[in-house]
């Protein structure tokens, strides 16, 4: 299921500074998006909006797929063993008890934590706790997987396992949004990178390289759904700036021109390498 942010903003407290504002973002099925930016820029806030953990202060989040969210720090002080916690989470996500218990064991083994299945969560190390956290996110096969530095604390084998699990979920049609400090993380899997900068989300070049920026004008409130990953920045009440991979630009243009009513293409350009676009 497609998730869309339209004009989404978030601030904490009445009159507090905006962490994010005016964010337009489409997260289609099967997409794998990296989010990056300096500490405090709002990366986690963006992930929490997409995951439905936080509600936008303004704007909308449209679409609510079955979602699994993994924060950087998993709270271990819960009255469960590792196996019981995973079974419980599987039940919450709609699995029958036998299926939930079976998948709990399978994922613990896959992440190299099978020996800790009967251990209380409070007694697990940071690394083992994080293995339980990612296993809980994966066992119910979510349609949207949101990972906020979920690789932190994992050993090399478990990181590789999580990389493979992300690729499997994307191949099955799930959308994935992730933050990780390692620039090599999922480099061969990610479709695009989004920069969080100055309370705004900006599109960087996709894995394929160049991006294309399209300025298009049409009736407000009647923006057509576009077929490929992109970002939108509203320039005025009638004009939006759409940034997408060069490989997808022809399809985006065809969609705009075939809309009812059709949109007028104001400009099409390739940004300079140092230029950020929304």
Automatic annotation (TrEMBL):
Residues 3-223 form the ABC transporter domain. SUPFAM superfamilies: P-loop containing nucleoside triphosphate hydrolases (SSF52540). The keyword Transport applies. Keywords: ATP-binding, Nucleotide-binding, Transport. Pfam families: ABC_tran (PF00005). PROSITE patterns: ABC_TRANSPORTER_2 (PS50893). The keyword Transmembrane helix does not apply. GO terms for molecular function: ATP binding. PANTHER family: ABC TRANSPORTER ATP-BINDING PROTEIN ALBC-RELATED. This is ATP-binding cassette domain-containing protein. It comes from Streptomyces endophyticus.
